[in-house]
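ingest -> fold -> write
write: protein_1
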Amino acid sequence: MREERRVGAYGVLRDSDGRVLLARGAAGCPCPGVWQLPGGGVEHAEHPADAVVREFAEETGLSVVVAGIRAAVADVSVFRDEGVALHTDRLIFDVEARGGRLRPEPGGGTDDVGWCTPEEAATRPLMPFTAELLGLPVTPLPADLPRARPAEPAGPATDRRQRFAAYGLVTDPTDRVLLTMIADGYPGAGRWHLPGGGTDHGEQPAAGLLRELVEEAGQLGRVVDLLAVDNLHNPGALGPERRPLDWHGIRVIYRVRVDAPTEAVVTEQAGGSTARAAWFAPAEVAALRMTDVAARATGRRVS
């Protein structure tokens, strides 16, 4: 079975009574008749926060602004007729309404929208990620539900890459910061970077980060909080392939604590992208050559 991946962005919008806005999938969408948080696929080079604003306007008629990142989860849907196992990384944002008129998407992916209390939402067929975010029991979708794989993004896909990754601002009990150096032959070579990397097919983002932490630095950590979503578009990235790629990186950044730190050692499982790993006292961080995302996460000004 062929493995495929996509990234989606969704929003939690509540009214003055605390009800959450849900949208029902129309006929022809991946899950017709099933309710979920409004949102959808992130287009190539699009920031996930921009994607949720766009999707909200298309699916509900409402103009929203992003108030913060709430969660990052993943799931896998199997489309046996097409021989595809589709992994979707889902980024869920808190959003606030700024205008518009509530309506379903004309001729599009939603045929109904409405405000729901938790009790009302529990009586409707829900996408599993939506049920989980609302604190409701997660039940599988009906086996006989007519399902269609989401359409591929419009436009040429040659040499395009969209990569989802999880990184950590990793500290120990003395507030030392753990960083990893990017190896030669990779974008950013020689700079200190946040530990982490691309998640595997079927892997949750937080679990992928903790796996990478072991591989890249030999540390056992625990995720404390989800800090931010970082977006990187480089239409001419030159990596190990030694040819330009239209590269779109979507990176979630967690706060991670290592309660019993040891000497940072790169393991064989890390592959070739990590040259070194080391702990740094807060005063030492300012003098390091760092990637932009590492500089922002550690509070340094990005020039």
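write: protein_2
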Amino acid sequence: MKQKLYLICGLGILFSSCTVIRQGEVGVKRRLGKIDPEYVEQGPKGYNIFTTAILKVPTRIMNIEVKPDLPSKEGLTIRSEISILYRIKPEAAPKIVQNIGLNYESEVILPVFRSASADITSKFLAKDMHSGERAQIENAIRKQMTDILEPRGFVIDNVLMKSIRLPEGLARTIEEKLQAEQDAQRMEFIKEREKRDAERRIIEAEGKKEIARIQAEGEKNAAIIQAEARKRIFEIEAEGKANAVTIEAMATRKANDTINKTLTPAILKLRQIEAFRSLSNSNNSKLVITDGKTPFLTLPDKF
């Protein structure tokens, strides 16, 4: 019975002297009240429960949500909701536990944030926190916190202004101003649209005018081309007729030359005889007078 009791006590002591360091955290070993400068990595770790303790420090990104009242440049108090995203460098975990302890959020991070946020927002107007200047404010707060906390082992990943609540009167004034600006922008858009429509109509009118001018010019050029074509055709026809007359005259002259060259005295005498013979065979009585030298080929039917 005693052996079983000793066995159970031994197993209890054995299991109680073991711990597991999970992902996103490191262990800090404290032996007899002193912090070991080397951090304990992930995995199962054994230690002496009578002399040693292993403290777990998260190294993953942590989120702190705060709702501070921020001062503005004009002296107003702006209610806000802000998230601080930070993480601890693993190698700095023993130093943080040694110098600050495990309550580092309330001891260091939040005080630094309050000081940095108040210092930065006091340089901006309240309306800037509600407009596009918000990102600039966030970056300025993060930078100032980083300058102070990074040497101590903290990394400030981001500062996010989730919501800003302006004083009721100021919020209404800003809303009215924004509404007026939107109305002005809308009117400017309408004015610009009408201007573009007018310019488009002018361009269309000029285009139609240019098209009409081009068409008229084209018709005029076509008429000129047609007239020149008809004139050229007439010239070609006249030139052809003249050439034809010239060719015909040349052919006639050449034929007459050929005939004159071939009409020898003997042929002319033969043609004269044939003519007289033809007259003698005619039923009509005719009187033919000739000197006997001139060739006489034909006589009219009536003398």
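write: annotation protein_2
The two ends are 188 Å apart (CA to CA).
The chain is about 55% helix and 20% strand.
pipeline exit 0
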